C-alpha cells in the first residue's frame, strides 16, 4: 500500500506544526480527504488528525453575529436554533448539502476546503492533464463533458466548478475566515483559478482554519438559500442562490441586498451587480427580473453548461421575490 | 445453505391453512439487518490473498507496456498476472458456442476493446498492497480513436436481437395503413446507456484443491456459471462448488459469470492459494454489462375513431465491437396495442464499450418508454384521453401473432389504477393544472407488460420420519425474496407448515434451479418445487394406501389429501394419519421425490403469455426552473397467482422507482474523445433517493391463469419499470407541454 503517517495532534499548536511539514494534511471529518485519497488526487505523507481537539466545535450566536468553530459538524450548525433564526440562509444551505451521513461527519473547516467535483480533476489515472492537479499540464475538461462546469470566473486553465453550498451563504453575508490570529474575508479566502488553478485558498503552509465569523445583519436575518437540481437530495447545485434582504421602513424599498451564487462559478460567487442595481429600488417583479440578469454578466459557457446561464438569474429572482413576499 | 426461521408470532399460514398467498416477511430479513448474512466478499478462507484488477484507461488499442517489476517490487505483492503468465484455459474466451454465451476478457492478448477492460491482475497479501501494485503497473498504450455514440460507427442490421429474436418483423402493410390513416404521428426518442449498479459489486472468493474448485460468488444462474467455468477450465461441472446464498442485487449483471470473476479463479490457480477479487464501483462500468443506448422512431396512423391503422417501431442501438447483444427495444410494440399493420425493426452500431447485456427488462423498458410516449402523442393528436385511446386499441389477442392471451386482466388494471389515482378529472390539454404553490402539474399514464417466461428447473423433496420435510433447489435470492416465496410453495407442496420445512437453496450442489432472470424464477423453480412435493407425497400415499395397518388403506392415490403433516382420505377426512406414523411403520427414515419445472410446449404454442399493468404518474414542474418532481405513482398489476403479496408489492415498488429513474435520472455520460464514462460512481450516476419518491402505490389485481403453469404464476420482477417510465414522461408533457425526446429529462430540457 501507499504508506503514510498518522499523527493525532494533542493541541492546536501541535496540529499546526505537524501540518506545516511537507506532505502533511489535516484530517477532520474525512469526507473530502479520504475520497480524494481514494481517487488518487490527495497523496498525503502525513495525516494530522484534529477531529478530537477540544473547543473547536463551538457555535456561538449573539447580536453581533455568529462564531462557529472549525470542527463543528455541518448537521449541528444546520440545526442550531440561533443559526436558523438569525442566519436562515446558512442553515438552509447546510441542510441541502451532501447527504445526512456526510453532514453528520463533515466539519465546517473541512467544508471550506472541499474541492471540485470536476470528473477530470478526480481521475488522475485516466486524465493526466489537469492544471489544478499538475500546473501546466492542461485542462481535460475543456472539450469534454462539461454539464457541471462553471460559467463564471473561469480561465483558459480551468473551468472547474466550486461545488459547495455553505460558502455561498457565507460569501453573501461577508463572513470572516479565522486562520488562527489571521482573519480574512471569505470572499478573499477562495481564489479565482486564473493561471494558478492549483491554488484554491488563501491559506499558507502552517495555517489552519480555526473557525468562521458571520456578522449579524438584518439582511442575514431575512435570508434564504435556494438550490435547484435534478434530484431532490444528494446532488450538487445546477444553480443556487443565497439571498438576504433588508427593507426600508416602508417595507418595499430595498435598503440592503446580498446575493451570492452557487453551482455556476469557480468559487462562491458574490453578485454585487445585482445588489447594486436593486439597492434603493422598490421591489417589483420586472425590476428584480432585469437586475437578476446581471448575476451572470461575463459568463462563458461550454455548450452543455449553457443552461446554467439561463437558470441562475431565475434562481436569484425567485429567491429575492420569495423574501419580499415574507415581508 | 439453509435458513433458520424465526417468526415471533403465529405465522399467517398456520392461521390460513396455506402458505401460498400469505404476506410473510422475508425469512432472511433478520440475518440481513443484523449483518449476519454472509455475502460472497465476507468469506476469508485460510491463506487467502487479495486480487485487484488493473483496467484499461483507453477505449481502443493495445497495451504496449506494463511495469510488472515495479508492481512486484511493492511490499506485499505476491504475483502479477498478465497475458504472459496467465494460466492456460481449456477454451477460447472469445468462443461463442450459443447466443447465451458471452465473450470474456481474460487476458488472452494485449488488445484493448473498451475502457475498464482488465489488462492485468495484481495479487497481494493485502487489499492495499494489491491496489497500489495495480497502480504501479503504469501501463503505456498504443491508442486508437474511440468509437462513441449512436452515430459513432457504420450502422448494421443485427442478425438477431435479444437472444435469437429476429431484428425485423412485420404483419400487414404498414405503409398502406399509414396512408389510409386520418391522423398520423412520427416521433423519435433517445435513451442513454445505463449501468446495473447493484449495491453489491461483483465479488469472488476462490479456492482450488487440485482440480476441484470452491467458489463464493453472487450468481443469478448457478448451474450456468458452473457450466461456463467447467468449459473454460476443462474440469467437470460437479467438481465446481459455487455458493451464492445472497446477492446484493443482480438486475441481470450477475446472470452470466463475468470476466473479472473468472480472472479471480485464474489468479487463485496462478498463485496456488485462495484468492478474493472484488470489483470497485468504477470497474463495474465495462466488463459486467449495461443497458445499451437507443434511438427509437415510431410512426402511427389512426382512423377517425382513434383506432390504429399502422404501428411502425424502429430502434437503433449499440453493441460492442466483439460480441452480440442487441437491445430488442422495438419488440415492445408486438404485444400491447391492436393494429392491422405492425412493423418492428432494428439497426445498430458497434462501439468501443463493454458488451451490453440483460438489464432489468432488457428491450421491454427501453421500448416501453418510447412506445408509451408515442401512444400519448397519438392520443393527443386524435383529441382523445390517453386511457380512452388505449382502451380503443385494446388488444383482445396478441397483435403480432394473433394468439389468444392465456389471461389478461389489463382492463381491470386500468380501471383500478385510474380510479385510485383520480384520473377522470384530467384535462386533455397540457399545461392547464397548477398547484397552490404555482407548480405546473401533470398527469400521465403508461401500460406495463412483460412476458411470462419459464426456463428449466429441478427440485428434490424429502419427507422424514420425524414429520419434517426438506426441499432443495439451487435457487438464487437476489433480494427479491426467493428464500421466502419458495419456502411457501414448498410448504404447500409438502403439505407441511412452513416451519416444518427445511428449504435449501443458493448452492450449486443442489438441483439446478435455472436462472433467476426473465421474471421467470418463481414460476420455473416454483413449479419444480411444487412437482417435487407432489412426487414425494405420491410416494408417501403409496406407502399408506398399500398398508393394511393404515386408516388410508385402499384409498388410492387420488383419494388422499396432504395437509398439516397428515394424509387424509378425500372422501372421509376423519380418517387420516401423520407422515411420521406412515414412515415409521414402513421402517423408513425418509423418502424423497423429484420434480421439474419447465414451460409446456403445447400451451406455449397455443397462447400468448404476458403479465400486464397500468401505471399513473403525477409530476410537478417548477415553471421557471424546469425542476421535475414525481409526486404520486399508482400502479395496478395483474401477473397471475401471487405467492407472497408483500414481496410482490416490493417488486412492483422497486420496478416503478426504476421507471422514475429511467425517465428522470439514470445516464452514463461518456467523454467523446476518450470513450470513458465520466460519472462512474454513485454520487454522479443518479438513481432516485427516497425524497424523489414521496408516494407510491401498487395494487394487486386478481388474475387466474390456467395456462401458464399449474401454480398460475407469471412473474413480477421487471414489469414495474415498463409503463412507469412512459407514465412519468407523459406526465412531464402534460405539465409543461414539452414532449420529452431524450431521457433522462433534465432541467435544461424544460427551461424554455
From TrEMBL, chain A:
* Domain FAD-binding PCMH-type: start-end pairs: 1-219
InterPro entries per the UniProt record, alphabetical: CO_DH_flav_C, CO_DH_flav_C_dom_sf, Diverse_Substr_Oxidored, FAD-bd_PCMH, FAD-bd_PCMH-like_sf, FAD-bd_PCMH_sub1, FAD-bd_PCMH_sub2, Mopterin_DH_FAD-bd
Q: Does the keyword Transcription regulation apply?
A: no
- Write one Gene Ontology MF term: FAD binding
Record keywords, A-Z: FAD, Flavoprotein
Q: Please verify whether the record's keywords include Flavoprotein.
A: yes
Q: Which domain of life is it from?
A: Bacteria
Q: What is this protein called?
A: Molybdopterin dehydrogenase FAD-binding protein
From TrEMBL, chain B:
Superkingdom of origin? Bacteria
Region (Disordered) residue spans: 1-23
Q: What is one Pfam family matched by this protein? A: MoCoBD_2
Protein name in UniProt: Aldehyde oxidase and xanthine dehydrogenase molybdopterin binding protein
Q: Which GO terms describe its molecular function?
A: iron ion binding; oxidoreductase activity
Domain (Aldehyde oxidase/xanthine dehydrogenase a/b hammerhead) spans 34-145
**Which stretches does UniProt call biased (Polar residues)?**
1-22
Task: Fetch the SMART domains from UniProt.
Answer: Ald_Xan_dh_C (SM01008)
Amino acid at each position: 500500500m501507499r504508506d503514510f503517517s498518522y499523527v493525532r495532534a494533542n493541541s492546536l499548536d501541535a496540529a499546526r506544526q505537524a501540518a506545516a511539514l511537507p506532505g502533511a494534511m489535516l484530517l477532520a471529518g474525512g469526507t473530502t480527504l479520504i475520497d480524494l485519497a481514494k481517487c488518487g488526487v490527495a497523496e498525503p505523507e502525513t495525516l494530522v488528525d484534529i477531529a478530537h481537539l477540544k473547543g473547536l466545535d463551538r457555535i456561538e450566536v449573539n447580536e453581533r453575529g455568529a462564531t462557529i468553530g472549525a470542527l463543528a459538524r455541518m448537521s449541528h450548525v444546520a440545526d442550531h436554533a440561533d443559526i436558523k433564526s438569525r442566519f436562515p440562509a446558512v442553515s438552509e444551505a447546510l441542510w441541502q448539502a451532501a447527504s445526512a451521513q456526510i453532514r453528520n461527519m463533515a466539519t465546517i473547516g473541512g467544508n471550506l476546503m472541499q474541492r471540485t467535483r470536476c470528473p477530470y480533476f478526480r481521475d488522475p489515472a485516466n486524465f493526466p492533464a489537469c492544471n489544478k492537479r499538475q500546473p501546466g499540464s492542461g485542462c481535460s475538461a475543456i472539450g469534454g463533458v462539461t454539464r457541471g462546469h462553471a460559467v463564471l470566473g473561469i480561465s483558459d486553465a480551468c473551468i472547474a466548478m466550486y461545488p459547495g453550498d455553505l460558502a455561498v451563504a457565507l460569501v453573501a453575508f461577508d463572513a470572516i475566515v479565522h486562520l488562527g490570529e489571521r482573519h480574512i474575508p471569505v470572499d478573499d479566502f477562495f481564489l479565482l483559478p486564473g493561471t494558478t488553478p492549483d491554488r484554491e485558498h488563501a491559506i499558507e503552509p502552517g495555517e489552519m482554519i480555526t473557525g468562521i465569523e458571520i456578522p449579524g445583519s438584518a439582511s442575514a436575518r431575512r435570508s434564504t438559500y435556494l438550490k435547484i437540481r435534478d434530484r431532490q437530495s444528494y446532488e450538487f447545485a445546477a444553480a443556487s442562490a443565497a439571498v438576504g434582504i433588508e427593507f426600508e421602513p416602508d417595507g418595499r424599498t430595498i435598503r440592503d441586498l446580498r446575493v451570492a451564487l452557487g453551482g455556476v462559478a469557480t468559487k462562491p460567487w458574490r453578485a454585487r451587480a445585482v445588489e447594486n442595481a436593486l439597492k434603493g429600488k422598490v421591489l417589483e417583479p420586472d425590476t428584480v427580473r432585469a437586475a437578476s440578469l446581471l448575476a451572470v454578466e461575463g459568463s462563458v459557457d461550454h455548450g452543455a453548461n449553457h443552461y446554467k446561464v439561463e437558470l441562475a438569474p431565475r434562481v436569484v429572482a425567485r429567491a429575492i421575490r420569495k423574501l419580499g413576499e415574507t415581508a | 445453505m439453509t435458513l433458520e426461521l424465526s417468526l415471533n408470532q403465529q405465522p399467517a399460514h398456520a392461521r390460513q391453512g396455506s402458505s401460498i398467498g400469505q404476506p410473510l416477511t422475508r425469512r432472511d430479513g433478520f440475518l440481513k439487518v443484523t449483518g449476519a448474512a454472509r455475502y460472497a466478499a465476507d468469506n476469508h478462507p485460510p491463506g487467502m490473498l487479495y486480487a485487484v484488477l488493473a483496467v484499461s484507461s483507453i477505449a481502443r488499442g493495445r497495451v504496449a507496456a506494463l511495469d510488472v517489476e515495479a508492481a512486484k517490487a511493492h511490499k506485499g505483492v505476491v504475483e502479477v498476472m498478465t497475458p504472459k503468465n496467465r494460466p492456460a484455459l481449456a477454451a477460447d474466451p472469445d468462443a461463442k458456442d450459443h447466443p447465451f454465451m458471452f465473450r470474456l476478457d481474460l487476458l488472452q492478448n494485449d488488445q484493448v476493446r473498451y475502457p475498464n477492460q482488465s489488462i492485468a491482475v495484481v495479487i497481494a497479501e493485502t487489499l492495499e498492497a494489491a491496489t497500489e501494485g495495480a497502480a504501479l503497473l503504469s501501463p503505456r498504450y498504443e491508442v486508437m480513436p474511440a468509437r462513441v455514440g449512436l452515430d459513432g460507427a457504420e450502422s448494421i442490421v443485427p442478425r438477431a436481437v435479444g437472444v435469437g429474436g429476429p431484428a425485423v418483423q412485420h404483419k400487414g402493410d404498414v405503409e398502406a395503413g399509414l396512408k389510409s390513416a386520418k391522423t398520423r404521428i412520427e416521433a423519435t426518442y433517445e435513451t442513454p446507456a445505463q449501468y446495473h449498479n447493484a449495491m453489491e459489486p461483483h465479488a469472488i472468493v476462490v479456492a482450488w484443491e487440485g482440480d476441484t474448485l470452491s467458489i463464493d460468488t453472487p450468481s443469478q444462474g448457478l448451474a450456468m456459471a458452473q457450466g461456463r467455468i467447467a468449459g473454460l477450465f476443462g474440469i467437470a461441472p460437479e467438481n465446481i462448488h459455487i455458493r451464492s446464498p445472497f446477492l446484493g442485487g443482480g438486475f441481470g449483471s450477475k446472470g452470466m459469470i463475468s470476466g473479472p470473476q473468472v480472472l479471480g479463479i485464474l489468479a487463485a490457480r496462478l498463485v496456488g492459494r485462495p484468492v478474493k477479487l472484488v470489483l470497485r464501483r468504477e470497474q463495474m462500468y465495462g466488463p459486467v454489462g449495461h443497458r445499451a443506448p437507443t434511438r427509437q422512431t415510431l410512426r402511427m396512423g389512426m382512423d377517425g375513431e382513434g383506432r390504429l391503422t399502422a404501428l411502425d417501431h424502429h430502434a437503433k442501438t449499440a453493441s460492442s465491437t466483439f460480441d452480440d447483444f442487441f437491445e430488442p427495444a422495438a419488440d415492445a410494440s408486438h404485444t400491447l396495442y391492436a393494429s392491422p399493420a405492425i412493423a418492428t425493426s432494428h439497426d445498430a452500431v458497434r462501439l468501443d464499450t463493454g458488451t451490453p447485456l440483460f438489464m432489468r427488462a432488457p428491450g421491454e423498458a427501453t421500448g416501453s418508454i418510447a412506445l408509451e410516449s408515442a401512444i400519448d402523442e397519438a392520443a393527443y393528436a386524435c383529441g382523445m384521453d390517453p386511457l380512452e385511446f388505449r382502451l380503443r386499441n385494446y388488444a383482445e389477442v396478441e397483435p403480432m401473432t394473433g394468439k389468444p392471451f392465456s389471461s389478461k386482466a389489463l382492463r381491470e388494471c386500468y380501471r383500478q389504477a385510474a380510479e385510485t389515482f383520480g384520473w377522470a378529472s384530467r384535462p386533455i390539454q397540457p399545461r392547464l393544472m397548477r398547484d397552490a404553490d404555482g407548480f405546473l402539474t401533470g398527469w400521465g399514464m403508461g401500460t406495463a407488460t412483460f412476458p411470462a417466461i419459464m426456463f428449466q428447473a429441478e427440485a428434490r423433496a424429502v419427507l422424514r420420519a420425524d414429520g419434517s420435510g426438506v426441499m432443495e433447489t439451487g435457487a438464487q435470492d437476489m433480494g427479491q425474496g426467493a428464500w421466502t416465496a419458495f419456502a411457501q410453495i414448498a410448504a404447500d407442496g409438502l403439505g407441511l407448515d412452513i416451519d416444518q420445512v427445511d428449504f435449501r437453496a443458493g448452492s450449486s450442489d443442489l438441483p439446478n434451479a435455472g436462472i433467476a432472470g426473465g421474471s421467470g424464477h418463481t414460476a420455473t423453480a416454483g413449479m419444480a418445487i411444487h412437482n417435487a412435493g407432489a412426487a414425494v407425497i405420491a410416494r408417501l400415499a403409496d406407502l399408506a394406501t398399500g398398508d393394511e395397518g393404515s386408516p388410508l388403506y385402499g384409498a388410492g392415490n387420488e383419494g388422499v389429501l396432504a395437509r398439516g403433516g397428515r394424509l387424509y382420505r378425500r372422501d372421509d377426512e376423519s380418517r387420516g394419519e401423520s407422515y411420521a406414523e406412515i414412515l415409521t411403520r414402513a421402517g423408513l427414515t425418509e423418502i424423497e421425490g423429484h420434480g421439474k419445472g419447465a414451460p409446456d410446449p403445447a400451451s406455449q404454442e397455443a397462447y400468448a403469455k404476458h403479465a400486464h399493468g397500468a401505471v399513473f404518474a403525477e409530476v410537478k414542474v417548477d415553471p421557471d426552473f424546469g425542476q421535475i418532481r414525481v409526486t404520486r405513482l399508482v400502479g395496478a398489476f395483474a401477473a397471475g397467482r401471487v405467492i407472497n403479496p408483500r414481496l410482490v408489492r416490493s417488486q412492483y415498488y422497486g420496478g416503478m422507482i426504476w421507471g422514475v429513474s429511467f425517465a428522470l435520472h439514470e445516464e452514463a455520460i461518456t467523454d467523446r474523445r476518450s470513450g470513458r464514462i465520466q460519472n462512474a460512481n454513485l454520487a454522479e450516476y443518479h438513481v432516485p433517493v427516497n425524497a424523489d419518491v414521496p408516494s407510491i402505490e401498487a395494487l394487486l389485481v386478481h388474475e387466474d391463469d390456467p395456462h401458464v403453469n399449474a401454480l398460475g404464476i407469471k412473474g413480477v420482477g421487471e414489469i414495474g419499470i415498463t409503463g412507469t417510465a412512459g407514465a412519468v414522461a407523459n406526465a412531464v408533457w402534460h405539465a409543461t407541454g414539452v414532449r420529452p425526446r431524450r431521457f433522462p429529462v433534465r432541467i435544461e430540457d424544460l427551461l424554455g
